[in-house]
User: Fold these one by one.
Assistant:
Number 1:
Amino acid sequence: MLADAQENAAAASSAVSTSDAASGVSAANDFDARQKTLDTRTAENNYRYGVAQHNCYSKFFVNHCLNSAREDMRVVAADIRKEQLALDDEKRVEHARQRDEQAAIKRAQYEADAPARAAQDARNAQAYDDKQRQHELSQAQRNAEAPQRAANEQAFQQKQQQHAIDQAQRGISPSQAAANQKAYDAKQADFQRKLDEAHQQAAQKAQERTEKQQRFQQKQSEAAQHKADVEERQKEAAAKAKQKQEEQAKQQQQLEQQQKQQQQQQQQQQ
């Protein structure tokens, strides 16, 4: 079921992304075409004004001609400016819509991935619990074997002592006994060295296990904190996006009202 949910979410996200991309490209192309038209009209208006200025100097009423040409240029420029402002507003609204849709897609993808993250967290917790139980079992086994190891060590020492007594009873010479004792001491020293090394290795491994456990707990804590931080940032981002969208909608409504008022004023003037 988890795989199906993720697959459905991915398919929906892909479909929305494709639709948004198509609409975004169409809107961008329309904006570019309209902007190009406005730029062309601006260039033509400036050109006509330049030609009119040039022609005015060949007429008798030069100043009157220049003023008339300037007024004609301003009328056309004002109309172009009005359309430019409307186009800029539409661009801002479209860009805001695209940002909101992208944010919605990301939120949907994050929510769709939530079961997978929860399952992974559960697997990590289970693995940690298994390691803890295995460590406890190993420790219990070592503690249970400790008396047997002590008994084996004591039996070895008794065996070595009995061997020395047997040699004395067989009439071994003092020099030979000294050599035997030296060899025995060397074996005992070697045995003690190996025993100390085994103890050191066991202590080192126990320390490594403790450190690994501490690092794992630290990572789990950091992961939980990171998750909480991400969720908090997402909530803040969503709140800001909603507030911005409301402000843009309010600005758009005010702009439309202003445009209606301007149209009514123009109609009244006509």
Number 2:
Amino acid sequence: MVSLKDIVPAAQNTINAQFILLDKERSPAPTKQGQEKSCMALVADETASVHFQLWGTECDAFEPGDIVRLTNGIFSKNRNNLVLRAGKRGRAEKIGEFTMVFAETPNMSEIDWVPDPNNSSKLVQGAVISPYSRMFPPRN
């Protein structure tokens, strides 16, 4: 299992992680005819948080408080958002609920990733875009 603070964007990767779902979009984005619906969620482990994209039946299957195990996930851009998702080869499954230590910062989706000066085929963390999720701002 990888900690969320250690994930790096890539077109092909196999992220195995475990996290708690903190918040989820109430109304999924409208889809074009024939497309599966998708919705965004905020998830976290004890090291960081990230935006997690749910597809199709996943939108209804997961709720805030669920502990989720992701197998063979992908952390990459999708519609200009940097998101973690199961993708075609991955799998997200509920393994528990409510009890997990988590950290909401840093949010790995709110970091500007730049090419590594020593290896242009890899990305490294650049500037922090926002200290919290702009998609799921803190509630006061």
Number 3:
Amino acid sequence: MAEKRSVMFVCLGNICRSPMAEAVFNEVAMQKGVADKWYAESSGTGGWHVGCSPDQRTMTVLRNNGIKYKHSAQQFHLDDLEKFDFVFGMDKSNVDFINRKKPSDNTRAKILLLGSFDTEADITGKTDIEDPYFDSDLRGFEKCFQQCMRSCQEFLDQHQ
């Protein structure tokens, strides 16, 4: 069997968007029958939440959509650019952070904006997956879930 390809999802603290994207990616890969070909992780640019579980609202949305998930937050490290084939920023500021920090243009990982694969981005004009952390309810988390679902489905359709 060929070596698994790998993806890393990166947001600010690794408790909302990037763990949701990781869980969604694994679910979509399983649904498409390609889970054995992919490895996924997530991390945050900051270390504030290292070791913490995902935000309860993230977990609620995942459970409401039938996805079981367990995760401990971790911080993004520059060597992740050599460990993973694709590193997805959840918004442009995450992508800019990674690009500013990377040691050279010759990294293994392709650094991409996850929302650039959102099939509705052409309609809405939004490629950033906005941080729902400060939302008072689940609406931002539901929106994040839907964006992650469309983006992961399209990415896997393009990279099977």
